[in-house]
Amino acid sequence: MNMKFKDKYDVIVVGGGPAGIMAALAAAAVGADTLVIERNGFLGGAATNSVLGPISPFHFGDEQVINGIPQEFMEQLIKEHGSTGHLKALDPYGSGAYLGFYDREKYKYVAEEMLLKAGVDIFFHAFISEVHKTGNKITGLTAITKAGSRRFTAKIVVDASGDGDTAVMAGAEYTYGNSETGKAQPGSSMFEMANVDTDKVYDYIYNNPEDFEWKSDLVPVREYSDRLKQHYFVAQGFKKLVKKAVEAGELCFGRDSVIVLNGIHPGSIHFNATRVIGYNSADPAEKSASEIDGRRQIESVSEFMVKYVPGFENAYVSVTSNEVGVRETRHIKGLYTLTAEDAGQGRKFEDVVSRGYFPMDIHNPDGATGYTEGKSGGSWVDLKDTYDIPIRCLIPEKLDGMVLSGRCISGTSEAHGSYRTQGGIMGIGQASGVVAGLCAIKGIEPRNINVKEVQKKLVELGASVWRDDAKKAREEAHAKECVKQYMSKRDKAITKKDILDSYFK
Ligand SMILES: Cc1cc2nc3c(=O)[nH]c(=O)nc-3n(C[C@H](O)[C@H](O)[C@H](O)COP(=O)(O)OP(=O)(O)OC[C@H]3O[C@@H](n4cnc5c(N)ncnc54)[C@H](O)[C@@H]3O)c2cc1C
Question: What SUPFAM superfamilies does the entry give (predicted)?
């Protein structure tokens, strides 16, 4: 393969995470000549680099809210034996309504092939070091590579770097974490263990319900590869065992419970279990320290699992994150800042370009405890309804030539706690790509684009910009039938009884 890069592009997307992938595909779909610049040698961002488990729901209840290119990506992953598609959680508390398990290696491959097929250029191993401006307008970027620096010009830059690197370099205003406390959600060093007797783990969860903060079976709602078929479940707890090990001085980590869920391949368990607290991940020195802290926690938790938890007797650590998973850093100030009230109350906006649906999930920035400790702990706040993400959250307040994407868009820490999971981020990515592509082709600034044109294009791409009541009713009926079928085949399931009851009324 012979990669040649141009000096000029219509759209340059900084960062090839879930947001950047979708932004690049959407920009290309509207006809923009597009380049992705990514500092790693693969796509996926935290989803691959930080060894994430599932893609959290595209759904609010049973209504699929995220559609269009993100769903095409899921379809392609399913086709390549790389995903289960969205599985329904019998109890959504703690994990969300649906989870899509995926193979991270397939994720990298599928994303890359989709971008190449769409005609997008991908510049790997390149770190943005400089942003070029004329007045307040961004005109290009310089990337540092092993062979020195390389300068590009772009009509529109999409900042999908997660931390909002390019916006900050260009002088955008931002807040770090929660603007009142100055604290951000903690990161986690993720890992997986293989050679686990997952049936034994499930039995322990099933027989010790009081030991878990939350837990759920996951129900298939569509066909997927036979290679990936197994019993999927998720749980947070092992509290008795954790307490015993901590008291014996045999466990040292940043939480008081362990979240486990299946890895996509049989016999593997995924851990969202460590908590690296108090580090600013946009600060290189603090980030270095967080990696060491995270790795020590992985060692401690994995040894605890082998020694204390039934099913892990012969297990071993099969993969660890390349980089601490960073939940939250900077929120760039845009033309509008999405708030907790907007998200919580399900607020709708005329200039909607994507929709949010996930509960506001804030991991405790201060310490070990989970959702149960009131104000001093983390929080999980269910939404009244889906809410709209207006185009204004994607446009930096004082900069032209730039569209924000992914986790750095303009929102408060609480609102970010909702839109930050992969489904929400992919929806935002798709919208940012359409805005950037249209602006580049028309030669206008994002703040001047007619949002109706953006919405029209998003609908053409298959996005669910507005609720479709008939579709929602079909999805609810289908999910109910799937749960019924599932329960008729299983003699035991870990979930709240009242949720199951509601399915059989
Ligand atoms: C610990 C943890 C657990 C999570 N669990 C889940 C989960 O279970 N389900 C779920 O759906 N979501 C989960 N998430 C959220 C999910 O990871 C994020 O929603 C998603 O990865 C954010 O996507 P993004 O593209 O905005 O940013 P990122 O994924 O951070 O991607 C940013 C990309 O930009 C690149 N980049 C950054 N700076 C530069 C630069 N200066 N130059 C060039 N490239 C750059 C990075 O290498 C990266 O590829 C979790 C996140 C964390 C941290």
Answer: FAD/NAD(P)-binding domain (SSF51905)
233, 256, 289, 418 from 298: Cα distances, Å: 21, 14, 14, 27
Spatial contact of 392 and 384, defined as CB atoms under 8 Å apart: no
Per residue in 116-147, pLDDT (tens digit) is 999 999 999 999 999 999 999 999 999 999 99
Q: What is the mean pLDDT of residues 7-30?
A: 98
Ligand 1 in reach of 365 Cβ (< 6 A):
no
Between CA 471 and CA 469 the distance in angstroms is: 5
- Please give the Cα distance from 301 to 331 (Å, whole number): 32
Q: What tens digit of pLDDT does each residue of 268-313 get? A: 999 998 988 889 888 999 999 999 999 999 999 999 999 999 999 9
Residue nearest to atom 2 of ligand 1 (CA): 325
pLDDT given for residue 375 in this prediction: 54
Top mutation candidate among 38, 84, 408 for ligand 1, by most atoms within 8 Å of CB: 38
pLDDT digits (tens, 9 = 90+) for 310-335: 999 999 999 999 999 999 999 999 99
Q: Is 270 in the pocket of ligand 1 (CB under 6 A)?
A: no
Distance (angstroms) between ligand 1 centre and the Cα of 31 equals: 26
Report whether residue 19 contacts ligand 1, using a CB cutoff of 6 Å: yes
Helix (H) or strand (E) run with residue 121 in it:
strand 121-123
Domain ranges of the chain: 8-183+328-467, 191-320, 470-504
Question: Which CATH number is associated with domain 8-183+328-467?
Answer: 3.50.50.60
- The finding on whether 272 has its CB within 6 A of some atom of ligand 1 is yes
